[in-house]
Amino acid sequence: MRFVSFKKLVVSCLMVAGFILTYQACNKGIESTRDRIASVVTGRAEVKQPLAFDHQAHIKAEELECTDCHRFAAKGVHASLPKMKDCADCHSQPQGKNPDEPKVREYEEEGREIQWVTVNKLPGHVYFSHRAHVGFAEMKCWDCHQDMRKVSKPVTKSDIGYLTMSKCMECHKEKNVKQDCATCHK
Ligand code: HEC
Ligand code: HEC
Ligand code: HEC
Ligand code: HEC
Ligand code: HEC
Q: For the chain, what is the mean pLDDT?
């Protein structure tokens, strides 16, 4: 009996997922497929990152700032993911013993970028700006994200899924920031 009801559950989940995908596909025809998939993925499925990058090891040992790699996190709308030139200075020489480390050099020698997958992405109709929060409101990354200084596995699923509209609003009310629809919806 348990098995049957589990199967039913799986089937209905698949139907819901199918519906959401179709709905999104129709609704956002102009968005790129990548954006569409990312926005469906937010807070739900896990993605796979191309390399076993370790935040904790890099930040601790090398005393790197978040913005050394996420270059627009204080000045731009999107924080951005690092480019090869952000890694090359150190990794043109072998570093440590992790089997994924030499791969960084392979990318570099072949002149290729590492294709990191963006996991945190709000639906396309929502406007969010890192600059407003990090630059102007002087918030720390870990006020919203998990504390990456202590994370040693690649980020494979969203950590801002809890930032629903009511959570954004809660803080905007508290801090007396704009709350009209057009502030966050374009
Ligand atoms: C007020 C909450 C908040 C703070 C503070 C914040 N973020 Fe974010 N971050 C978000 C949200 C929301 C998204 C998804 C944005 C979107 O889809 O437009 C995001 C997305 C990202 C992404 C992936 C997409 C992108 O923008 O390139 C990175 C990387 C990131 N944040 C890094 C950082 C770093 C580094 C800091 C600190 C310097 C930081 N964030 C501070 C809320 C926050
Ligand atoms: C300031 C120097 C420096 C920069 C910049 C740097 N790394 Fe590293 N990286 C290191 C060192 C040192 C190690 C060895 C850490 C250890 O084994 O304890 C390492 C280790 C690694 C490893 C092995 C697993 C791990 O994380 O320990 C990978 C993969 C890696 N780095 C990828 C990258 C990528 C990708 C970038 C660019 C986004 C980058 N690194 C930028 C210094 C750096
Ligand atoms: C040496 C480069 C480097 C530094 C320094 C660094 N990051 Fe990252 N970050 C990366 C890379 C590479 C990824 C994508 C792979 C992964 O998830 O590990 C990433 C992914 C992320 C993501 C997930 C982005 C997404 O796809 O939504 C967040 C959030 C983030 N970093 C926050 C931070 C914060 C906060 C700091 C500072 C405490 C920081 N990072 C410092 C290289 C770096
Ligand atoms: C913990 C508090 C907090 C949270 C959570 C938060 N915000 Fe904000 N937000 C602020 C503050 C403070 C400002 C004002 C920054 C300044 O000084 O301009 C701001 C400004 C903004 C602005 C710029 C408004 C303008 O002046 O044009 C936008 C857009 C925005 N937030 C969207 C969002 C969205 C979307 C979310 C949820 C994903 C969110 N915020 C979550 C505190 C927060
Ligand atoms: C501070 C930012 C912010 C403001 C202001 C804001 N929203 Fe939102 N809204 C969001 C975010 C983030 C989402 C996506 C996450 C979610 O669905 O909770 C969202 C989602 C939505 C959705 C889609 C919900 C769904 O289930 O897909 C609607 C509709 C919406 N907002 C309407 C409004 C209206 C109407 C107003 C003005 C009264 C408003 N929003 C003001 C941040 C905001």
A: 83
